[in-house]
Amino acid sequence: MRLKIKHRTEYRYDAPLSYALQRLRLFPQSGPTQEVLEWSLKTEGAVREAQFIDGFGNDTRLVSIDGDPRAIVLEASGVVETRDTAGVTGKHQGLAPLWLFEQQTALCSAGRGISALLKDIPGDTDVERLHALMSEVRERVAYKVGTTDAATTAEEALANGEGVCQDHAHIFLTAARLMGFPARYVSGYLRMDDSDEQAASHAWAETHLEGLGWVAFDCSNGISADSRYVRVATGRDYRDAMPVMGIRIGQAQEELAVQITVEQ
Predict the structure, then answer these.
(1) Which pairing describes strands 47-53 and 88-90: parallel, antiparallel, or unpaired?
(2) pLDDT tens, position by position, 197-228
(3) Residue 172 has what pLDDT?
(4) Distance (Å, rounded) from C-alpha 214 to C-alpha 200?
(5) How far is CA 165 from the centre of its chain?
């Protein structure tokens, strides 16, 4: 499937900034599940500072803002050809060792809730158990925007019973690691069947299985990733793979607007 994507992030401030630095993970890379045919980044009001591949293999850019202007626009866009591999991404690559993805993080730390969740997971094989886990997370945590935020942990989201794709991924990651599997967070885009406009980028999880490599599980939709998915960044949790993050110095009040379109 050939997908055309535009991800526009606009910041507005009511006063000049002393300084700000943004780290962008908005650049998909070609691999077993996709080929990037074209991709570009347009910036307004920001200066490009650096480009590098981080420890998780993500194409990362830094942009800075100093004083005026009071509006900054970051627009990543391009065309990606995707392939349906039944969720299998393939063998592990990159500098980060597999054991790193077995470790708990601040957002993905198992407590009583997730430990109890695993008691109800059936299946005779690893794949069956992970698919059952995906279904259980989807059943236990209803998809609802506005009930959690970027700092919500996996345990908190499970106890809350509501959340978004980020929360589903964090719960799955935490449980899969507790089961003994390396697991990682994936940020990217999903082509919805009913609309080109997206409220936000998407997130799902991948688990590493012997003989298969990394396999994707999207608890929010109850499926493994197919040709509608575009992978952009990976990490141990959301903080390692978030599309835009940064720091700013100054007293200015910030307004943020995000517009994402994914069309075939």
Answers:
(1) unpaired
(2) 887 899 999 999 999 999 999 999 999 999 99
(3) 98
(4) 24
(5) 9
Question: Residues with Cβ < 8 Å from 102, sequence gap 6 or more?
Answer: 177, 180, 181, 182, 183
Alpha carbon distances (Å) from 238 to 91, 108, 152, 164: 22, 10, 10, 12
C-alpha to C-alpha distance for 151 and 78, rounded to whole angstroms: 30
Please report, rounded to a whole number, the percentage of residues in the chain having pLDDT higher than 90.
Answer: 85
Going from the C-alpha of 100 to that of each of 94, 123, 177, 183, 259, the distances in angstroms are: 12, 26, 11, 9, 33
Q: What's the gap between Cα 37 and its chain centre? A: 21
What per-residue confidence (pLDDT) applies to 166? 97
Burial call 55-94: b when 16+ CB within 10 Å, e when fewer: ebbbbbbbbebeeeeeebbbbbbbebebeebebbbeeeee
Q: Where do the domains of the chain lie, and which CATH numbers do they carry?
A: 2-81+244-263 (2.60.40.2250), 84-241 (3.10.620.30)
CB 155 within 8 A of CB 114: yes
Q: What is the mean pLDDT of residues 192-198?
A: 85
Sign of CA dihedral 38, 240, 131, 89: positive
Count CB-CB contacts under 10 A for residue 129.
17
Sequence-distant (≥ 6) Cβ neighbours of residue 120 within 8 angstroms: 136
Q: Which of 64-78, 112-126, 195-209, 217-231 has the highest mean pLDDT?
A: 217-231
Separation in Å, CA 41 to CA 179, 210, 234, 240, 248: 40, 37, 20, 21, 21
Over residues 142-166, mean pLDDT: 95
pTM value?
Answer: 0.95
